[in-house]
Amino acid sequence: MSKVRVHNFSISLDGFGTGDGMTLEDPFGHAGRRLHDWMFATQFGRSLFGQDGGGVGVDQAFAERNVLGIGAEIMGAGKFGPPGWQEDATWRGWWGEDPPFHTPVFVMTRHEAEPMVMEGGTTFHFVAGSPKEVLDLARQAAGGLDVRVGGGPTTVRGFLEADLVDELHVVQVPIVLGRGTRLWEGLEGTEERFAIEAVTSPSGVVHLTFTRR
Amino acid sequence: MSKVRVHNFSISLDGFGTGDGMTLEDPFGHAGRRLHDWMFATQFGRSLFGQDGGGVGVDQAFAERNVLGIGAEIMGAGKFGPPGWQEDATWRGWWGEDPPFHTPVFVMTRHEAEPMVMEGGTTFHFVAGSPKEVLDLARQAAGGLDVRVGGGPTTVRGFLEADLVDELHVVQVPIVLGRGTRLWEGLEGTEERFAIEAVTSPSGVVHLTFTRR
Question: Of chain A residues 3-32, which have a CB less than 8 A from chain B?
Fold first, then answer.
């Protein structure tokens, strides 16, 4: 059975997966790039922008797992665009015409729209339904490979609540955001279902991995 | 100048420093002992109960710093006793007649009471005032040594908000409590005032140290 995986999901010390006030200019709100600076400094992160170089240490080792063996992504509506993107017929995601997914991507939204076929193998499908229902669609599209739940925090939390996540990689960044959307809200006792490891990085982040028992 | 230090302050993955529903039977509410099991497994933790043995690894190295060079403790009313202890004239703290402080201890409360002189050098003083005002009292009593802010989370948060903390040792335990009292609430940007280190322990906890820049 293909697995459901979450990778490179960054949170602040106080558990926020995005900041407050997400806009077109600030996709992560007042958090800015601070939650993801660790990734942009890796070879994997730089390659997303067509840049050479970048670190190949523990941050890279975790970061590049994001794409290995993945056949489809599921994301929340809030990851696909800024508030109100559903009313903008020209919106095609943050990532340009060749998004870095290269697989089918299922955007969870009640907004009905035709699939968007992008370059490089990415197709955005707009689907409504429970986490389980959307996962069934994504699994069919993944061709036996794993399904990544790509965020944001509300979406990851929904899949954890429904006990659908096999592997969860959380990256704790040493900042106190104070406001935004929390990952762990309502997830009391989640640790009982997982074996948990923590490892620090010279970059200052802590990688936490949760593997289903 | 003597320093203000916080040690062995355990929080859950979701940032709770105590659980929900604190009572005489459950000083940490539904968290039980789970936030402090790491410490009770160390030589330091076992010695608090007069027991031999215990680990001497990284958890012990951090845990025993709690008492080194400390001349006074400040604690919140919620650490001294269960809700309503102010109305119980026989209440003398959780710790018996020889509490493990061995210094003056300043309990922040609007409840007026005479100092309680215990065995082993501990005297409980009951004082009202701002963090700064109570710190001034504790510093006078500490005889040039450092002052420990002993918790709970609301008290530690108050001293962080007032920018009075020089060293903060937080121990993140891999459990999701879901409810209780959060440490980081309202502390946006706190990281800017500190150099932060993280180190993992074989016990599964992550030690985070914040040293004032």
Answer: 13-15
